[in-house]
Amino acid sequence: MSLVLFFITSGISQLFTGAILDSFGRYWASLIALAVFAFASFSIALFPNIYLLYAMRDVQGITISLIVVGKRAFFVDVYSGEKLKHYTSLFVIIWSTAPILAPFIGGYLQSIWGWQSNFYFLGILAVIFFILELVFSGESLKHFHPFKAKPILDVYGHMLRTRDFALGLIILGSCYGLVVMYGMASPFIIERVFHFSPVTNGYSSLLSGVAIMLGGAIAKALIKVPIQKKVPVALISIVLFSILMLVSGVTNGNTYLMTALTIGLHTSGGFIFNVVYGYYLGRFSKNAGTAAGLTGGGMYIASSAICYSMVNLFGIRTQTILGAANITGVVLVIILFIAFSKFRNIRLNAEAATVNAAMAS
After folding, report:
1. Any idea what the CATH number is for the domain that residue 250 is in?
2. Can you give the C-alpha Rg of the chain in angstroms?
């Protein structure tokens, strides 16, 4: 429940924190959020009470949304062009290490010093970042926007009415939702169907996380290749891996084969996620905080809806059904990407025509 509360508050908060950051700046919001996050973490560790835990996890979710959205917007504030693509791609790769490192670090801390040590660790980390931010950082926002309801709502409305932006949100949510879907289904399949231990499931999840990070690294290496050339290749590979998972589940399903095919799936999914996410962070540079918040919050909501819908629709209990669910998910992504590409090309052509007309005049 505490994890659910954290994700819900973090996801919903990101929808609104962007507007706050675009109006009041990134620097002081980040400092205050780090300080409050440290306070919440130490409170959980020092005063173990289930209701305090729930409340402080909500506080952590809100403060994390301020920190993460602020740092996404920071790159847009400071960089542009190829440098912006480089750093946003790197940001996604680093962000994707979380599902790899967190369970292992947390597990070791708990086994050695008890569960409270996880929150001491988070609190100390926040204090260290607070000091580093205080010493080395500063305000990156150049143009402050008035904090008024109508202009803010107009910006949100404009972004959501921009078709390539709205479609891309669902693409991001779908790619991430397929990853979460595996995380929800794999314990049952590996432990109940194939009769392996939770340790085996842990290593399977670890390899899944490595695959996502690998996909992001490949996307960064191919950063100069146009979207319309590299994403279709990744989509085809996801389809092939999904079909192999479905067919092999019928004939000779086992944990090792399922994990190997999942590595291929999540490498391709991580690739697509990195490409589209990097495109998004630079899409509305004048309202970088709002765009970053809307992207993060919208992605969380879309991925949650897609993931839970797929799990409940298919009732995933075997490798075969997991493959079928993946095929359904990737077909949705393909349809969305075709529409996304169409509207993106319309926008680029319109912008080129405007530039040409200006030059001619």
Report:
1. 1.20.1250.20
2. 21
pLDDT of residue 99: 64
Query: What average pLDDT score do residues 36-60 get?
Result: 94
DSSP state of 49: -
Structure tokens at 141: 């926002």
Note whether residue 88 is domain-resident.
no
Is the pLDDT higher at 219 or at 280? 219
Question: Would you state the structure tokens that stand for residue 155, as one six-digit string?
Answer: 């910006």
**Averaged pLDDT for residues 256-271:** 91
Separation CA 53–CA 46 (nearest Å): 11
Mean pLDDT of 180-185: 82
The pTM assigned to this predicted structure is 0.74
Residue with tokens 């399922």: 258
Which distant-in-sequence residues (6+ apart) come within 8 Å of 337 by Cβ?
171, 231, 232, 235
Residues 354, 359: Cα–Cα separation, whole Å: 9
CB 181 within 8 A of CB 310: yes
Sign, CA dihedral 159-162-165-169, equals positive
Domain, as residue range, for 65:
2-82+99-142
The per-residue pLDDT for 100 is: 66
